[in-house]
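Anyone up for a design puzzle?
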């Protein structure tokens, strides 16, 4: 509910921040029935902490702020949705984010004891353990195991947060602390609209949300102490575990845990836990040679042991010979010496698993799903599922959450090199990336359709099979999960010069970016598309992105830049005879004037757009122009002129067969007729609106038409019939969860009381 109220407040700011008194004067005549509205009643709608909202008041305020009927309807539906969500108790955050604990975890008793001891004490400040060590030494496994041990003991039940900060990933830059905080705050149930933009403000909110909470935070693969400073809460009830290849001695109060390679006994314990004691006992000398070859590096031990587990007929002596033939003597020296070990595991993979590993090397994102990898390498999803099980079995990948896989950054770099070197199979990197890009582009297009995004570009068909979405929620969830990968795909498209992806993806994601307030990121994507279109002298595409850019500028309250961008879009569309682009630019320019209170300028611009739309035969945009002009004239008190425009819009809606638009416009016509003291005409319009709303299943418009019918009958003096319609309106509003039901019940009570209070007629009495 607070998220909705916050967004509502931003809409008011976008519309020029009219005072509550001004807005109340505008919204009062738009209520059903029209009435005087106090500024305090209206101001209450914009205050957080509300448990419910007056749907009719919200709709009237949105109209008064200048949105067209399509925008008004989106706000109406959102209000209904958040109120239903509030009754269910609201959305649930993802508080338990720890990766799975390894069943084969072994050793590290001293380090583990040192980490668990301060967590059990009575510290007066947040407890921080910083685990340092070389790549592959087992820092992540130790942090995750320690976290699970603490949770199993009953500690930190309120929240368990995890993030891979990717401080040393060769392909992806380190995670931005501001982005990490956004993810944490969303997991802690902070609505997206309430998350501030500035890093320091996000950090302060994060600390506030974790105050007095039992929370454990695992910050994995930190680049340095600067990356994690703002991710540390202040409450002594919290514990932070940080891993990094670099020293984190710069973090005040942190307990440093320097992780070294395994000693021979620890290496043997891990080796035995993977392949079993019988094989060790049968070839003890060969086992010692293998362990010595790994240099005690836990990742190396795990890779060798996993390879042997996958090949039970392979003797340990054969494995030792294979390792030495690949010059593994220097494996303990770090990342470069791990390459032969990974190569040994890679060569033993099945052909599909090799193809999937190479797809991982091409994928520009941060985690991987079976459908995406299947698209990249041209395999069936079931083949990729089996291949991923093989990679997990070989310790080359891990499934952090169900259906989403990650790999160690060293292995990811190896996979990228495998593609470049053509290991295992002939791979066309460009073809694989094109297939992956096409899959993301087409899947995102399908998701955008499901969340009702308008004016989508046509995406070219390909032989990849994209995802399809049956519901709004499933599409939105997928877009949330793949947001980082979609951004990475767009960046890769820019690097490759893939024109269609550069220009189409930002438009496909435009509505989603609005829903998630990702204005700055979307603005950067549209800027890249503008530049690509400018290089190609593609005026139509450039104009489209300039218009999208202007919307982002408006959302960020950069009105001068929005105005400048709209004027450029208008000029370019005119010079290229792009009538559609010109109309769109004029409609948005009119909205900008209207939001700034320049109503007559707005009407003038929309009248220009209407003429061009008529010339082009674009009845839909003609309808939008007429509706916008009608709403603004309504606000100016020009009711007859407003009614004339609504009737023109209704004619277009009928010829286009847009039944729902007809119902919305009829509601406006009914209101205007009531204010013009024409209840008979209002009654006829509301009756037709009622039938249309029922035919398209729009319960909100059904409720509006029932209220309008009652209001018209009241004005005709047919009070009993009016009350009958109002009672039906109450029932529908109750079903919708709208507080409007209470207002209508009060209207019924007031009408009945007024009828009872009428004086009896004087009778001539002859006594």
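Challenge accepted. My sequence:
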């Amino acid at each position: 509910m607070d998220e909705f109220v916050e967004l509502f407040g931003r809409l008011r700011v976008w519309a020029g921040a009219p005072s509550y008194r001004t807005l109340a004067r505008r919204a009062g005549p738009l209520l059903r029935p029209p009435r005087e509205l106090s500024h305090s009643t209206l101001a209450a709608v914009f205050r957080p902490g509300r448990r419910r909202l007056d749907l009719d008041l919200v709709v009237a305020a949105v109209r008064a702020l200048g949105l067209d009927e399509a925008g008004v309807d989106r706000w109406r539906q959102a209000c209904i949705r958040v109120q239903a969500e509030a009754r269910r108790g609201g959305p649930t955050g993802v508080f338990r984010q720890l990766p799975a604990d390894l069943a084969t975890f072994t050793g590290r008793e001293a380090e583990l004891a040192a980490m668990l001891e301060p967590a059990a004490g009575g510290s007066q400040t947040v407890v921080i353990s910083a685990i340092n060590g070389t790549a592959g030494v087992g820092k992540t496994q130790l942090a995750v195991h320690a976290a699970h041990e603490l949770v199993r003991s009953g500690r930190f039940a309120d929240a368990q947060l995890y993030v891979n900060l990717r401080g040393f990933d060769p392909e992806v830059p380190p995670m931005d602390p501001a982005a990490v905080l956004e993810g944490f705050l969303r997991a802690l149930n902070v609505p997206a609209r309430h998350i501030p933009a500035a890093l320091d403000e996000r950090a302060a909110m994060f600390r506030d949300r974790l105050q007095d909470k039992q929370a454990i935070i695992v910050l994995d693969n930190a680049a340095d102490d600067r990356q994690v400073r703002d991710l540390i809460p202040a409450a002594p009830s919290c514990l932070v575990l940080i891993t990094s290849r670099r020293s984190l001695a710069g973090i005040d109060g942190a307990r440093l845990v320097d992780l070294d390679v395994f000693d021979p006994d620890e290496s043997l314990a891990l080796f035995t836990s993977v392949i079993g004691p019988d094989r060790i006992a049968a070839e003890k000398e060969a086992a010692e040679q293998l362990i010595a070859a790994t240099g005690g590096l836990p990742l190396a031990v795990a890779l060798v042991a996993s390879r042997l587990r996958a090949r039970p007929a392979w003797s340990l002596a054969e494995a030792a010979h294979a390792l030495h033939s690949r010059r593994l003597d220097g494996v303990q020296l770090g990342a470069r010496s791990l390459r032969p070990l990974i190569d040994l595991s890679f060569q033993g993979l099945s052909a599909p698993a090799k193809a999937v590993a190479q797809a991982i090397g091409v994928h520009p994102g941060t985690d991987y799903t079976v459908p995406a990898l299947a698209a990249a390498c041209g395999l069936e999803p079931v083949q990729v599922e089996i291949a991923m099980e093989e990679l997990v079995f070989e310790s080359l990948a891990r499934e952090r959450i169900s259906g989403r896989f990650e790999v160690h950054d060293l292995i990811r770099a190896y996979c990228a090199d495998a593609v470049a070197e053509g290991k295992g199979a002939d791979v066309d990197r460009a073809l694989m990336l094109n297939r992956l890009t096409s899959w993301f582009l087409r899947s995102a297009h399908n998701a955008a359709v499901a969340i009702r995004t308008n004016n989508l570009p046509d995406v070219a068909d390909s032989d990849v099979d994209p995802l399809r979405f049956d519901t709004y929620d499933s599409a939105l969830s997928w877009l949330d999960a793949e947001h980082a990968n979609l951004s990475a795909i767009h960046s890769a498209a820019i690097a490759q010069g893939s024109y269609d992806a550069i220009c189409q993806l930002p438009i496909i994601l435009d509505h989603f970016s609005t829903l998630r307030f990702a204005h700055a990121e979307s603005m950067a994507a549209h800027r890249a598309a503008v530049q690509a279109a400018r290089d190609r002298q593609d005026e139509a595409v450039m104009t489209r992105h300039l218009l999208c850019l202007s919307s982002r500028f408006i959302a960020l309250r950069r009105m001068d830049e929005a105005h400048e961008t709209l004027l450029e879009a208008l000029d370019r569309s005119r010079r290229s005879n792009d009538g559609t682009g010109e109309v769109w630019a004029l409609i948005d320019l009119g909205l900008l004037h209207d939001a700034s209170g320049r109503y007559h300028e707005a009407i003038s611009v929309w009248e220009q757009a209407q003429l061009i739309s008529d010339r082009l035969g674009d009845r839909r945009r003609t309808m939008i122009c007429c509706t916008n002009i009608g709403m603004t004239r309504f606000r100016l008190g020009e009711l007859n002129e407003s009614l004339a425009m609504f009737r023109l819009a209704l004619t277009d809606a009928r010829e286009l067969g847009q039944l729902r638009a007809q119902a919305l416009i009829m509601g406006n016509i009914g209101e205007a007729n009531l204010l013009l003291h024409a209840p008979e005409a209002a009654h006829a319009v509301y009756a037709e609106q009622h039938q249309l709303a029922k035919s398209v299943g729009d319960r909100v418009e059904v409720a509006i038409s029932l209220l309008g019918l009652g209001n018209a009958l009241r004005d005709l003096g047919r009070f009993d019939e009016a009350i009958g319609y109002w009672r039906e309106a109450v029932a529908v509003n109750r079903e919708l969860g709208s507080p409007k039901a209470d207002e209508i019940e009060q209207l019924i009570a007031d009408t009945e009381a007024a009828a009872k209070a009428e004086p009896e007629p004087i009778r001539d009495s002859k006594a």
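A detail worth pointing out: The mean pLDDT is 83.
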